[in-house]
Design brief:
- By secondary structure, the chain is an alpha+beta fold.
- It has one domain: 2,3-Dihydroxybiphenyl 1,2-Dioxygenase, domain 1.
- 37% of the residues lie in helices and 19% in strands.
- The chain has 4 helices and 4 strands.
- Strand 3 and strand 4 form a beta hairpin.
- The longest helix is centred in the last third of the chain and has 20 residues.
């Protein structure tokens, strides 16, 4: 059984990044995704723990998810994590919203040409 001093060392261990470049195409999993109603707060916690934000926020309004956004980040160990403000329930129905968006674009194109959209 581990002593208390050894287990406390594990909880305070800070990860370090290697200096070599990493080829994402050679691994099986690119990233995981978590849902959080406040992605900014989660990214802030990750950065404070040694992670980093990767790029800017993505606006999901264009897919019918008004007011929702997402962002990619790395945890302190270098794993890529996507954080979305959508609930898992909303993520599971995203195909329906994307379908709505495509139909909307098609209708706009047809209207511009003076035709009726096939829906």
């Amino acid at each position: 059984m581990a002593s208390a001093s050894k287990s406390s060392n594990l909880s305070t261990h800070r990860p370090s990044r290697g200096t070599e470049s990493f080829d994402y195409a050679t691994v099986g999993v690119f990233h995981i995704c978590v849902t959080d109603p406040d992605p900014e707060a989660l990214v802030k916690k990750a950065v404070e723990a040694g992670g980093k934000q990767l790029g800017g926020y993505m606006d999901y309004s264009r897919y019918g998810h008004e007011g929702h956004k997402g962002v990619y980040m790395q945890d302190p160990w270098g794993n890529v994590v996507e954080c979305m403000s959508l609930s898992l329930d909303r993520v599971a129905t995203a195909g329906r919203h994307l379908s709505w968006y495509i139909e909307k674009l098609e209708a706009e194109k047809c209207a511009a040409k003076g035709k009726e959209a096939k829906v």
